[in-house]
Design goal:
about 0% helix; 3-stranded antiparallel sheet; mainly beta; elongated
Length: about 70
């Protein structure tokens, strides 16, 4: 869920982290870290988090009759 209370901590969407490049985050507490690392000082910033794409429905099982009104 996008607004779940239990967010797995990651430096890539922490208020204290700034993106340097695709493989490193500049953290106020830890210095340069990996985007998937975390520390006890994690503070969630919902504007930095990119939610996973929704799963596309599988229409291959449907028949043409299912689409007629």
């Amino acid at each position: 869920m996008l607004f779940s209370k239990k967010i797995e901590p990651r430096c890539s969407y922490c208020q204290r982290g700034r993106v340097l490049d695709a493989e490193s985050i500049l953290c106020v507490k830890l210095g340069i870290t990996a985007p998937d690392s975390a520390c006890p000082a994690f503070r969630y910033d919902p504007l930095k988090r990119v939610p996973p794409r929704p799963v596309a429905p599988d229409f291959s099982q449907l028949k043409e009759e299912d689409f007629r009104l």
